[in-house]
Amino acid sequence: MVFSFALLGVFIAVYVISFIILSVLTLRFKNTQNAISDATGKINQLKDVEAILLASQKKLSAIDEITKSEISYPAILKELLVLPPDGILIKSINVDAKGAVKLDYIASSSASLESFVNTLLEKDEIENKFASVFSNAITKAKDGRFSTSVTFNTVKDKFNE
Amino acid sequence: MNNSSTRSAIAILKLYQSIILPGFILIVVIWLTTRYLLPNIDKIQALIEEQKGQEQKLTQLTGKLSTLSGANKDEELDTLKKIVAVIPEEKDAFSIFDGLDTIEKDSGVVVLNSDFRVGIVSTESAQVLVRQKAKYPSIDINFDLIGSSDQVISFLKELDEFRTRLFGTKEIAITVNSDKTMTGTFVLSAYYLPFPETLGNPDSPLPQVSARQQEIKTKIAEVSVPKGPEDNDAIIGKPNLFQ
User: Which B residues in the span 147-176 are in contact with A, Cβ-Cβ below 8 Å?
Assistant: First the structure.
């Protein structure tokens, strides 16, 4: 008998507590909703600022991606111009969008030719700035000079540092 | 007869009251629990979940509001104008000429000739084409120039220094002349990007500006020259023609 009344008492207590919690939560929910609509209203008033920031960010993101994807032509050109040892005369330089280089040059002697090829190999094997260095046919002129061309790929990361 | 049966019923109730009453109370409590208490608990759980979502939304909105209120509108607008000078919203052939002229003067090279095809300039169909074709549309420009090696390198450096419109280099072919000057044929890309068409909902977060983008923004703010209104100092005549 006592147990059943105690059970009834517990029910009433739990129900009252649940009711209080529900009321508090409902009140908190309404307050949060009010705060949300307040903030939304204020954000709507600042739509012009948002438009400016959004447009800036979109363009900055594009500039970032474009410049990141670009090959550093000035750095490659600088490197190529200081590359030849004495006796090597660069005639033309071609660099494509992927960083593939073709150099046409004249060597005054076989020694300078060898020296230049060694320099290129060093850039490939030691400094890892170039890759797939390929020397094309060498033509020896009457004056003893050698004219030839070399192709290689530049390692983008090494020039964009 | 009735009295005796009532008495016997009461006697039975008295005899079993210790079982009947608790049983009745138990049934009532179970009924009340399922009818009122459990729905209340369900409501509490649902409200707690919903409250979490609302609080997240509020945090997001508050953050966005704080960023928007903290931004200096005039300064941001000024920077946007400079960013637009770097990457305009349309092809804008004139800024290509202007940019190349500036870089040519600054680097000291001489542009021998240049050509590019602008194509569709500013029609509805051009906008559709932009969306469908490439992420960052551009116009390719071919041109020849002459200069010393330092001048050519300086020219190439200036192309993405943000002082003028952003140019990407696609291809270079240089001939070294006997007098050590260089004659080069270049293919450049002049990029452009239309403004976003919509802003999104108030609770959509503002896109984050990365450290690199911030660096670019600062640099552009420092060096870029926006396409401004006409020179206010220019002499435009008498304000009052009758004086």
Answer: 149, 152-154, 156-157, 160, 162, 166, 168-176
